[in-house]
Amino acid sequence: MTILNLGIPKGSLQDATIELFEQAGWRISSYSRNYFPDIDDPDIRCSLVRAQEMARYVADGTLDLGLTGLDWILETEAEVEQISTLTYSKTSNRPSRWVLVVPNASPIQRVEDLQGRKIATELVGFTRRYLAERGIEAEVEFSWGATEAKAVEGLVDAVVEITETGSTIRAHGLRIVEDLLITETRLIANPSAMQDAEKRARIDQIALMLRAALTARHKVALKCNVPAHQLDEIVGMLPSLHAPTVSYLYDREWLAVETIVDADAVRDLIPRMRAAGAEGILEYALRKMV
Ligand SMILES: Nc1ncnc2c1ncn2[C@@H]1O[C@H](COP(=O)(O)OP(=O)(O)OP(=O)(O)O)[C@@H](O)[C@H]1O
Ligand SMILES: O=P(O)(O)OC[C@H]1O[C@H](OP(=O)(O)OP(=O)(O)O)[C@H](O)[C@@H]1O
Ligand SMILES: [Mg+2]
C-alpha cells in the first residue's frame, strides 16, 4: 500500500483546512503539541507544516501533497504542481490580498513614490521582485509579524501586508496604496508523485472532493410546490445547472419544483416565488457538489 504524505498548513489556514477536509469526507484530529494529526484514512499520513515552508517540502518530496497560499508558492519559487485553486482564507471563502499600506497622512500616493524609501514585509522576495520589475529602488526589510505597527510607529515608510477582512488596516489608521497580489489557497503536489499512478489517483480523489465541498458552500437547494397555472412564471425565475426538476403532486393541479441556486440569491428569490404563488418553500444546505 502506498502512503500519501499530506501537509496541512499550521497557523492561519489550519482550522479552515481541517474543516474543509471534514466536509470533503476525511476526519482529521489534531492534538496540541503534536505535529502529526490523525486522519481516518490508512493510506494518508498527515503532518502540520508552516504555510511558508509547505511548497519547499512538497518540491523536495518530503510531502507528496500540501495546501498553502499562492503567496508562499511565489515567495519560495518552489517547483510544485498546482493541482487546484481552493478559494478559502482564515475566516472566509474569499481570496486575501497583499497590499502596500501607508499611514493615512503619508505623502506616498503610488507605488513609484517608494523610490529610496524603507518597507517592511514578511513577503520579502516577492516584494523585491515586484519593485525591481517596475524599476523602483527601495529597501525591503523582513518583518517577523505585527507588521502594520511598524508603519504606525514610523520605523518604516510603508508595509506590504496581507489583508482579508480589512479590520487590522482600519484599526491602525492605514491607507491602501496598491494591490500587489490576490492570493488563494492552492493544493500543490510533488511532480514525481504525480507520475506515480497510485499516488496520482489519491491526489485526484482528494482534489475532486475538496473542490466539491467548497463549491457546495456557495449553493443551496430550493424546493417548493407550485400551482400548475403558475409553473412557467416560477420556473422562469429559477437559475439552475440544467433545468429545474419538476414532478406532479398526487393532486395534479400542483407540481413540485426542485433546483440548485446561488446562496446569495435566496433572500431575493424566496419572496418573489411566494408572491407568484409558490408554497411549502424549503431551502437545504448542500455538503458537496460535483
Ligand atoms: N486572514 C489571513 N491572515 C493571514 N494569512 C492568511 C489569512 N487568510 C489566509 N491566509 C493565508 O495563510 C497563509 C499564512 O499562514 P501562516 O499561518 O503560515 O502565517 P501566519 O498567518 O502569519 O501565522 P501566524 O500569524 O499564526 O504565525 C498564507 O498563505 C496566507 O495567504
Ligand atoms: O484583514 P484582516 O482580516 O484584519 O487580516 C489581516 C491580518 O491577519 C494577519 O495577521 P496574523 O494573525 O497572522 O498576525 P501576525 O501579524 O502576527 O502574523 C495578517 O498579517 C494581518 O495582520
Ligand atoms: Mg501572520
From TrEMBL:
Pathway recorded for this protein: Amino-acid biosynthesis; L-histidine biosynthesis; L-histidine from 5-phospho-alpha-D-ribose 1-diphosphate: step 1/9
Top-level taxon: Bacteria
Keyword Lyase: no
Enzyme Commission number: 2.4.2.17
GO biological process entries: L-histidine biosynthetic process
GO terms assigned for molecular function: ATP binding; ATP phosphoribosyltransferase activity; magnesium ion binding
Domain Histidine biosynthesis HisG C-terminal: 216-288
Any one GO CC term of the record: cytoplasm
Substrates-to-products reaction catalysed: 1-(5-phospho-beta-D-ribosyl)-ATP + diphosphate = 5-phospho-alpha-D-ribose 1-diphosphate + ATP
Record's keyword terms, sorted: Amino-acid biosynthesis, ATP-binding, Cytoplasm, Glycosyltransferase, Histidine biosynthesis, Magnesium, Metal-binding, Nucleotide-binding, Transferase
SUPFAM superfamilies: GlnB-like, Periplasmic binding protein-like II
Similarity comment: family membership: Belongs to the ATP phosphoribosyltransferase family. Long subfamily.
Descriptive protein name: ATP phosphoribosyltransferase
Source organism of the structure: Halochromatium glycolicum
Record gene name: hisG
